[in-house]
Specification:
Layout lengths: L14 E14 L3 E15 L7 E13 L5 E14 L2 E17 L2 E15 L4 E16 L2 E13 L12 E9 L3
Antiparallel strand pairs: 1-2, 2-3, 3-4, 4-5, 5-6, 6-7, 7-8, 8-9
Length: 180
């Protein structure tokens, strides 16, 4: 469980707990890896913006990626979430494709392409699509990695619930180190 820190906000007397449980399985062949997963995600929240209702969701995904260390590698992910909060149902779909080109050892140029689509039913009837592209440079060596890129993203929706963004370009910077 997680308890959100709400100090200094108007809803400091509330709470925010979440639970997540799931299963991920995968198999690696010589040149391709496959991963499947399913999970439950639940949030119980009470603050100035909610009535104390519980959000329940079921997630599923499939991921396929090339292996074997060639100069050109790919990966693709398909994901789906069904969620329910009160009288509203949500359906979220995601498609992502990654292409990586090895420049020299430890250095890659990558392009991530994606489409996220959401549909809400009930009192909040709305839908949206988020289309994005991220070209980036990646450096990986040992347990450390860093990437620098630019995310170009656009949200498309006819609904009044999703504001039209006035910014379409964002920095995409990631740094990680695997301790174990």
């Amino acid at each position: 469980p997680h308890v959100g820190d709400r100090k200094g906000r108007a809803f400091e007397n509330g709470y925010d707990f979440y639970s997540k449980a799931g299963v991920d399985v995968g198999y690696d062949w010589d040149k391709v890896g496959l991963e499947l997963g399913a999970s439950y995600y639940g949030v119980a929240a009470k603050d100035a913006f909610s009535d104390g209702s519980i959000y329940n969701a079921v997630d599923a995904y499939v991921s396929l990626e090339s292996k074997g260390g060639g100069r050109l590698n790919f990966g693709t992910d398909l994901s789906y979430r069904y969620g329910n909060f009160g009288v509203n149902d949500e359906h979220l779909f995601g498609v992502k494709v990654d292409l990586a080109h090895l420049i020299r050892p430890y250095n890659h140029m990558m392009i991530d392409l994606g489409l996220d689509f959401g549909m809400y039913q009930g009192s909040l009837a709305a839908s949206f699509a988020n289309i994005w592209l991220v070209p980036r440079y990646v450096r990986e060596k040992g347990r450390a990695s860093a990437s620098v890129g630019v995310r170009v993203s656009a949200v498309v929706s006819a609904s009044e619930y999703f504001a039209k963004p006035n910014q379409y370009v964002y920095p995409d910077i990631r740094v990680s180190y695997n301790v174990i």
